[in-house]
What does this fold into?
Amino acid sequence: MPTNPMLQRFVEHIQKTRLFSSDDKILLAVSGGVDSVVMTHLFLQAGYAFAIAHCNFNLRGADADADEILVRHMAEQYHTDIHCISFNTTEYAKQHRLSIEEAARKLRYDFFATTATQNGYRYIATAHHNNDAIETFFINLVRGTGITGLHGIRQKNKNIIRPLLPFSRQEISNYAAQHNLPFHEDYTNNDTTILRNKIRHNLIPLLKEISPQIEQTMTRNMANIASAEQIYNQAIEQKKQLLVHKPEQIELSKDDIGQLNPRTTYLFEMLRQFGFNAHTVTEIANALNNTGKQFHTTTHTLLIDRDKIIIKPLTTAQFTSQFAVEENTLSVSQPLHITFEPAEANTITNLQTNNSTIIVDASKLQFPLVLRKWHTGDRFKPFGMKNTRKVSDFFKDQHLSLFEKNEKWLLCNANGQIIWIVDMRMDDLFRVTNSTSKAMIIRHLPQN
It folds into this structure.
């Protein structure tokens, strides 16, 4: 067992939490700052297998280059592999419309993930410590967050581990001094226009005046919140079972929504996976009586239907164009797979029809036929009825949601007459009669 107190706690913490196995090879994210330098030294002293990854974001000129030189020297001194990369972070942020901080975060984690995968590193270790977790708590609190944002930083998130979380910034600095470890201080850490630095240099000292043990208190608070979150998540997972997953959409009945208490909180946790934020979920909860109202994210659309809400991914094909079907066409594949089979009327007396197969009087067809979506004001004469009806009223009678209405296709004559609402009802004007000699069998087949 290591004799250094911090090294001993470090090893015991990894063993107790099963953060990783002694057989695992770990990729250490090393910036050259005191935290990552100490983490690397602890890994070395504990005898764990590791390699170093370093990102030069080219944001601090010569200082950034000096960081890279320091880290490369560490790798040489410790006889370990090193993976370095240089980024044009400013250009990347501009191209992807990100803040510099967001761009740097994405670039480094993408690089770490790729490097780990290509070289067989089981985990990626970052040097976040206890003070970082406390600062993250207040950042999330200020920005507005649910319970998930108040547990601080997790020890392990998939293949990302944070082995220094039990240690304070002061303990890490003391260890570096004790072992004469060289490191570079990032001068931007003193820039209090950055929210994290403002919390670190202004808020935390003020809280220490009020409660000198604030760091220990906040550590206990975050542990309690993490425990409460587990109970919270169990309740949320039970309610998520109310979401009915169908091939094309997800549904949640209004009756089930009415049983949720607190309703908006449960709805938020159920809908956030589709990109809906807390503000939008509140609007959804307040609009449940407004049938037909829609809400959108970058990935999904939510529709308030008569007795349920319907969520559909935006990847569902939404065709808006018209498709012509020329005379003598036997099959079309877009937007639907439809076949056209000419037949003698006297040969089809025993042919079974259904919603996806119709037989029409071929003499009444005017080419090119047109496949299109329905329009407001469309009318047709439903098969078996004497009078015409608005297509919209027919849909209403069939209890179609707005999504389902918008997905329906009409097969029309060249003059605009509706021949068939595909998969629903043909127009009675095109029915086969005793005077029909030439017929057309039209089928809607599943897409291959």
